[in-house]
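Handout, section B. The chain below has 402 residues.
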Amino acid sequence: MGGAGIGWVGGSGVEQPGTAVAFGVLIAVGELARWGAPEPRDREPAPLGFAGALAYALLGECAGLATTHGVCQVVAVVVAGTLVGAVPHIARGRGAAPDHVARRVLTVGFAAACFQPLYNSGTLADRLGQGPYYALYLLLLLLLTALCDAVVAALMLRARTGYPFGPLLRDELRALLGIGSAVCATGVVMALATAVAGLWALPVFCVPLLLTQLALRRYAAVRTTYRQTIASLARATEIAGYTPHGHAHRVAALSTAVGRELGLSGPELTVLEYAALMHDIGQLSLVDPVPRGATALLPAAEQRRIALLGGAVVRQTGVPAAVAVVVERQADPYREQPLPARIVRAVNTYDDLTGETGQGGQGALGALERLRLGTGHDYQPEVVESLARVLARGGLTPSPPG
């Protein structure tokens, strides 16, 4: 699409070059101001750039004069602006990921294809005029564009991670209620304001989105610090010699992967990750450490006592109460457990058992076999089979938390 758009514009020339350059600069500035290197968890790392691209796709007039650019020019300006804005990031080794650029081109191209031909042909003016029906059409097109963006993003994550499409799409749709709604609303408002006030509306209406991006960046920093604090607390058992090095983080990463395989998303995955990180904290109450920290090999009564002690400790840390519930119930029969507790118990047992004989090889196969033998009482069969599928795909893959 990018090649076709640039080729078309190169052959036929740029319509209204001043407007095209202004929106291209806005998209480039938005790309310059993005979060940093895009990660799987980033819904839209450059909200201002995306809002500018969406505004250009929905632009019908500029200062009262009808525009004549079409879909191909919209795609060409979006590609050019995104690539120009990415140059400084590429120079620092943090360039935009190809799927980030492709997602923006596909989404904006969809919006332009639904708007520009109808506007340039006069169909919108004849059928809807400039009244409430025109605004309703823009609102409907905005919703369809947001849905298109969510579907494209979920498909890309599905291709990268292999996780079920449904939960990934649900995560993307939930994200639309946050920065996604601000981006879409800003794009439409900029298009409507430019139609009346001209290009001077662009810098005025991009300021609120920049402030929103700054606030969300600070919020993301707070969440990162909070998670790092929990991870540091989880390492207390390792530092004290109660559990092997990296055990809590292995269990957390593998539990999150299994949770996504089973359809968990958003806050459910956050609770699962925090509980998996802190699942062994009850061992700090023991006088003598369990050999290799393998609580899965202890009698059921001792496992339950450690789990209850761990839950009591977690309740004092300020994390959500649901995390403590998962920790204190991980030793119960699986039919009495919530799903996150079933996942943590199975993954913890797997890591304990593979730690006995080393990673991989017969250790992993033997651990899975022992888990399957315990599906009558201790481990949910669906959780064990999901764990086997995750391991068969290569174990841990990057996952975008909700």
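Note. The two ends are 30 Å apart (CA to CA). Compare this with the example in section A.
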